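User: Structure please.
Assistant: Input sequence and predicted structure:
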Amino acid sequence: MAEKFIVVWTIDGKTTRAPYPTQDEALQQAEKLLRERGCDLEITFHLNRISPPPSVLFNKKRMRDWCLAGFPSVQI
């Protein structure tokens, strides 16, 4: 199976899931959302499928910490 990165976020009770072919594209989308909505956005970053760990690469807390740190470079 080819790797697929999935960003999942919830705004106003509506959950959206979007797949991206690369890690960089997924992180760019996550950064855009966090910049627009703030670091407390309900957002997660998954690899290949949406499920509990081990597919979760970034949970809400890690995304918040990444946002508060100013979006430093990430190597997954």
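The mean pLDDT is 90.
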